[in-house]
Amino acid sequence: MKKETIAQVLQFTEDRNWKQFHNPKDLAISICLEAAELLEVFQWSADDTECSDKIDRIREELADVLNYCILMADAYGLDLDEIILEKLKKNEQKYPVNKAYGKKEKYTQLKNQTDNM
Question: Crossing angle for the helix pair 55-75 and 24-42, nearest 10 degrees?
Answer without folding.
Answer: 160
